[in-house]
Design a protein that fits this description.
The chain has three domains: 1-27; 31-128 and 216-267, Glycoside hydrolase/deacetylase (TIM Barrel, Alpha-Beta Barrel), CATH 3.20.20.370; 132-212. Strands 1, 4, 5, 6 and 9 form a five-stranded parallel sheet that branches. By secondary structure, it is an alpha/beta fold. The longest helix is centred in the C-terminal third of the chain and has 19 residues, at 249-267. It has ten helices and nine strands.
Length: 281
């Protein structure tokens, strides 16, 4: 419910701030700082699993008109005092490496001549492997069950205590979108090596067959090389999207280095950037 209310408030407040000139006022004051936007999927469904293609194009049009889009490497150079930062600077990034970054986002970025960086989970590139959160979204989208009880996942909570015994309604697409976000946030608190077990339980509870699940495809190396040759940078995002805070330093080092090496070998360019899966905790 809180997620639903928050989402609706954004839809009301953001247009108001835009048309009153508040954003222009804030942008004029933006000096010696940069904004970094992070996306995942850009698709045409608009069903809560990413950003709608039309909305993304409007956002890029606004950025091109009001701001100065720069490569993420320029911000790195500014932070190390090797390069000045232009006013109203902004960098566009994507995590994971979904195919719709190429099919939907890339043409729009080229249209507005906006650079971007895509951080690749290399173990998923050119494969049919599925991220657990995509499977969660598909299970919730396809279920015919009217609700889900979060207390059913009591055993997965690290301290053994369910912080909310909330039941989530699943009757409408709006309710399902809210449920997707809530369940994902809950599952992120579980021990990393038990998340797939929790996903399997969710699938059983919501009675969704494996054949019903259609998860988004990932980029292939041909698409990556084409973008790399046309203004898109690439960075590492580990091999398996593991939560680095939950593994040994040796495994973390291997995940980071192998991801970087695989990208460099496939695009024949050095890779400088790295994005932490799940953020830096």
């Amino acid at each position: 419910m809180k997620t639903f209310i928050k989402g609706n408030l954004k839809k009301i407040i953001c247009p108001f701030l835009y048309y009153t000139g508040y954003f222009d006022h804030r942008l004029r004051k933006q000096k010696e700082k940069a904004i970094i936007l992070m996306y995942h999927r850009i698709h045409e469904k608009g069903d809560g699993a990413g950003v709608n293609k039309g909305a993304f194009e409007r956002q890029m049009e606004f950025i091109k008109r009001k701001m100065i889009p720069i490569p993420l490497t320029d911000i790195s150079a500014w932070l190390s005092k090797r390069k000045p930062l232009p006013p109203r600077a902004i960098a566009i990034t994507f995590d994971d490496g979904y195919e719709d970054n190429f099919a939907n986002a890339y043409p729009i970025l080229r249209k507005f001549d906006i650079p971007a960086t895509i951080f690749l989970t290399t173990g998923h590139i050119e494969t049919t492997k599925v991220f657990w959160w995509d499977k969660v979204n598909e299970i919730i989208r396809k279920t015919k069950k009217p609700f889900i009880h979060l207390k059913d996942f009591q055993d997965f909570i690290k301290d053994g205590y369910m912080h909310s015994a909330e039941s989530i309604r699943l009757n409408t697409m709006k309710e399902k979108i809210c449920a997707m976000k809530t369940v994902q946030e809950l599952f992120k608190t579980f021990e990393y090596n038990r998340v797939n077990e929790a996903v399997a339980l969710l699938q059983k509870i919501l009675d969704v067959e494996e054949r019903e699940i259609e998860c988004p495809p990932m980029l292939n190396w041909h698409q990556i090389r084409e973008m790399s040759n046309n203004g898109i940078d690439f960075g590492a995002h580990t091999v398996t999207h593991v939560n680095l805070s939950g593994v040994s330093s040796g495994q973390a080092e291997e995940e980071i280095n192998d991801s970087k090496k695989i990208i460099e070998e496939n695009i024949n360019k050095p890779v400088y950037g790295f994005a932490y899966p799940y953020g830096l905790e």
